[in-house]
Amino acid sequence: MAAEPLDAYSQIVTGVAAELTPKVASLRVSQAGRPGESLGSAVVFTGDGFLLTNAHVVGRATGGVALFSDGTSAPFTVVGADPLSDLAVVRAGGAAPHPADLGEADELKVGQLVVAVGSPLGLAGSVTAGVVSALGRSLPTRSGAAVRLIEDVIQTDASLNPGNSGGALADARARVVGINTAVAGIGLGLAVPINATTRKIISTLMQDGRVRRAFLGIVSSPTPLPSWLRQRAASKDGLRVADLVAGGPAERAGLRRGDILVAAAGKPVTAAQDLQRLMFAEAIGQPLEITVLRNGALVDVIAMPSELAAA
Asked: Is 56 marked active-site?
């Protein structure tokens, strides 16, 4: 009896899986001062052995072993990590698979099909599919007493298995649009987007091994602006302040929960990425003018971004 042809949805998912599974490695990372190994995934993104993963996967390690789906393995060294974006670059010694194509997360739409490909627990080819359920979110994370914010994450209902952190989130054309970073709850996954900002982070990690980052200490989410303000602000949306890092630059500047950020450095703020683009080394310790909507009125505040300390 002939097998029935796959439906269109299954064809897309199986095609993405076939394309990306060989390009997603399982990382075994030896953490200094800790017994055993941590496990995660990583995506080959250059032809000379650079892989992209999460900063929290590599932690403070300097290297480990990458295992590929064809049964080969290679030692890797950690090139650099950026806790704010939860991105890290490692480089495998010896031959590595052909690299995955990096896409553009800024083109994603809510409801769009995405496929998560990881290599958890050393088992190649964990594949789940779902849709983009939200864009432009901020994720607060904690490591001991240190608090950091991962900005502009992609939220998806594609289930993530243990060890999938650092794996690929891909569109229907098998282009990597995000790096899976966390399981936020039942049926909920988060991914760091691949876009102009994170490409700059990746490039800096490859060149310098670290990214000097400024931060404000804001947890935010997009929100519509009132009609009277849209034309004046040249934007339909702003960023509502949901929470503030205690003692952070934003709180010290007088920002409050419930404020709606309209502009920063004279430019409209419609998504977390608009702030993130400003938060590189040149912003550290420099005055940053922020316009917010508060109680129906526009208020200007001056914040002084500080350097993000290593966790």
From this structure: yes
